[in-house]
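Cross-posting from the chemistry board since nobody answered there.

I work mostly on the small-molecule side, so proteins are not my area. We synthesized flavin-adenine dinucleotide and want a rough idea of how it might sit in this target. Sequence and SMILES are below. Is it possible to get a predicted 3D structure of the two together?
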Amino acid sequence: MALGSLEIGIVGCGIAGQAAASFLADAGHVVTLLERFEQPQAVGAGLLLQPTGLSVLRALGLQPEAIAAGARIDGILGENQWSVRVIDLDYGDLHPAAFALGIGRPPLFDLLHRRVLAAGARLVTGVEIVDVEREGARAVALDRKARRHGPFDLLVVADGTNSSLRQRVFPRARAPVYPWGCIWATVPDIRAFGAQGLLRQRFFGTTAMLGVLPVAFDRLTLFWSLPTPELQADRPLDLEAMRRKAVALWPDVAPIVERAVAACAFTRATYRHVSLPRWSDGPILFIGDAAHGTSPQLGQGANLGLLDAHALGRSLADAADVPQALERFAARRGPSNRFYGTASHLLTPFFQSHHDLLAIPRDLLLHRACVTPPVRRVLAGALAGLRRGWWSADSLDADGRYPL
Ligand SMILES: Cc1cc2nc3c(=O)[nH]c(=O)nc-3n(C[C@H](O)[C@H](O)[C@H](O)COP(=O)(O)OP(=O)(O)OC[C@H]3O[C@@H](n4cnc5c(N)ncnc54)[C@H](O)[C@@H]3O)c2cc1C
């Protein structure tokens, strides 16, 4: 027997929260989104939407607008300081029609925001949720001013990588900050990088990395790797040192870096490696970065959050009650979320760490893997978000899309 209409609370009006609210409101549930900002807004760097995330946007009816707002990405090219190709992967190896999309956060946020409001979810802003309480089988969210929201039949926590509810619900949850993060800036693409259709990176050992991601036909996001202590808010950024190193590492990008530095356009970002003992506790479910945040090395975080949102909608649609829906959610999303969390964690020191020697096996092995067709295909599948675990993976459908 299918579930009737539920009262559902969602904490966090970000990528995962808004996508989940849209699917659940579409299905006839009464959805309340609780967001700490007075004015919900896009926070963060431009990002790469994989074929997986694009399929979720398609299910929400947003894919054409997203494609119009973003930049098509056909592959990823990473070179070391001697211009030797370290990573060279192409979505076309999976299917001729497959591609990813670079997109700025503001346009992605606007699309999701309009969608969630159109779906009829109720948005409550200016409420920072700091605790949850159980009332029998239901859950109540408590905000910083001690106001109570709910009770809800299901409370979905999508409050991002710095989730304040994670430790309240799962005292054994772990979310250490990575020793390295980055600064990023979204700037005009004055060297027409977008025309190449590539996410490009340049590495010097493991201590310098410059990334260029086209996010619109005329804009790109620059990423520059830095140790986390240098990213602390009270410490001034040494943009001049960054400019010197970046320009020496990758002269082609120099005019873009110079302009971004002159405009002081950079913002700091750190990442956490989140692990929960399980995805839910009673009627409280964690999704997105709150549940499985990781470093952006494999470009998966937002995609995993979108897939969580879709899987939650499906699980509520085909279960008899909330506990069964949450079990089905865990079965659908657990393996892939765990794989990408672990794989990102293992890979990160090879790209961002003080262990420069790790660059030697990285450059040798990845280069070899990328020129060996069967391995290259497996790596392209991992990048596209297709892996379900170390030993299993999904395939794209006959049209080159990820089948949800
Ligand atoms: C530099 C960088 C580059 C990245 N690049 C990529 C990429 O290329 N591809 C990719 O897929 N992913 C990428 N990611 C990861 C991606 O940004 C995240 O995985 C994604 O934003 C997570 O979405 P979310 O909805 O879980 O959380 P968020 O988008 O962080 O949303 C959380 C929401 O919850 C709200 N909130 C927080 N606390 C509370 C509270 N207590 N009460 C109420 N509301 C609250 C916040 O205001 C926010 O609106 C990158 C991350 C970084 C840092």
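Reply from a structural biologist on the board:
Welcome over. Reading the output above for you: The chain has twelve helices and 19 strands. The two ends are 23 Å apart (CA to CA). Happy to explain the token format if needed.
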